[in-house]
Design a protein that fits this description.
Shape: elongated
Oligomer: single chain
Order of helices and strands: HEEHH
Radius of gyration: 14 Å
Length: about 90
């Protein structure tokens, strides 16, 4: 029997960022590595649901969902290093 190991994260923000990437709510700029909001409401809801259902050890479901919402709120929809589309 093989047990699936969970990723080890140093911070709740790192865990939330990984969860948002996994849910497809954010993506990484291919050139610069900045996180970008995909503006997909279904992916955001999926990430919040995943956070409530499977929070990291020692974190309540509400705290996990709040961390996901905080990280999502801090991510812009454009990369600050990419030139603007003209």
């Amino acid at each position: 029997m093989i047990n699936e190991r969970r990723h080890a994260f140093r911070t709740i923000e790192g865990w939330a960022r990984h969860l948002l990437l996994e849910a497809g709510a954010i993506r990484e700029c291919e050139e610069h590595g900045w996180m970008r909001d995909r503006a997909d409401p279904y992916a955001c809801e999926r990430a919040l649901l995943m956070a409530r259902q499977d929070p990291p050890a020692g974190v309540s479901p509400d705290e996990a969902a709040a961390a996901v919402a905080d990280v999502l709120g801090s991510v812009g929809d454009t990369c600050p290093e990419c030139p603007p589309d003209v």
